[in-house]
Structure formats: C-alpha cells, structure tokens
Amino acid sequence: MDKKLFGELTESMTQMGEIVRGERAPSREFHVTQPSEAIVTVNGARLSSAQVMTIRVFLSMFEMPDLGDDEHGKVMTDVYNKSRQEILLLMRLP
C-alpha cells in the first residue's frame, strides 16, 4: 500500500477514535431518512442492503423457464412468474 495513503488512513482512524471518545467533533454528519433497500428478514435474520439488492436484481432479471408443456407445468410457470412480480412490487421503497 502507498505510504502516503496508509498515513491518511491511520490519521483518519485516530480521528475516529477521538470522535467516539467525545474528544473531537465530527467534521460532517449524514442522516439517512429511509433505507436504501427494503427490509427483508429470513428465518429471523435481517438481510443487509447488499443481500436485499442481490435478491431484487436476481428477481428482476430472472424469468422462470417453462416447467412443461402439460397443463400443470404451464400453471406452475405462471404462478412462479406472478409471485416473482409480487415480490418485486413489495420490495419497492415508498
């Protein structure tokens, strides 16, 4: 790593410690009023924004292939695709 960049990084970490201990005021603050992604919980575990984004991108790109030419296969393909669209609508932020 570049020594100058490493020096800047360690100085930043020192300043962070001072801010946490109340010895220094932060130079700027950011306030997030709403999450960047929908909140998704799976088996009691809340997914990170990156994980939720991965699901949203996959669902938006994935189209269920035909599950057969018979009536059951056609119905199941339709059900999966409709459910995929419903989930995408639910994941939209207000």
If you had to describe this structure to a student in words, what would you say it looks like?
This protein has 94 residues and is mainly alpha-helical. It has one domain. The chain has 3 helices and 2 strands; from the N terminus they run αββαα. A two-stranded antiparallel sheet has the order 1-2. The longest helix is centred in the C-terminal third of the chain and has 20 residues. The relative contact order is 0.10.
Query: Unreliable runs, pLDDT <50, ≥5 residues?
Result: none
What's the average pLDDT? Answer: 83
Spatial shape: elongated
Percentage of residues in DSSP E strands: under 5%
Please give the order of strands in the largest beta sheet: 1-2
- Percentage of helical residues? 40-55%
Q: What is the count of DSSP helices, taking H or I runs of 4+ residues?
A: 3
The counted number of beta strands is 2
* Structural class based on helices, strands and sheet pairing: mainly alpha
The run of helices and strands is HEEHH
Distance between the termini: 42 Å
Task: Give a brief rundown of this model.
The protein has 94 residues and is mostly helical. Helices cover 54% and strands 4% of the residues.
Q: Topology of this structure?
A:
Blueprint: H1 3-20, E1 41-42, E2 45-46, H2 49-61, H3 71-90
Antiparallel strand pairs: 1-2
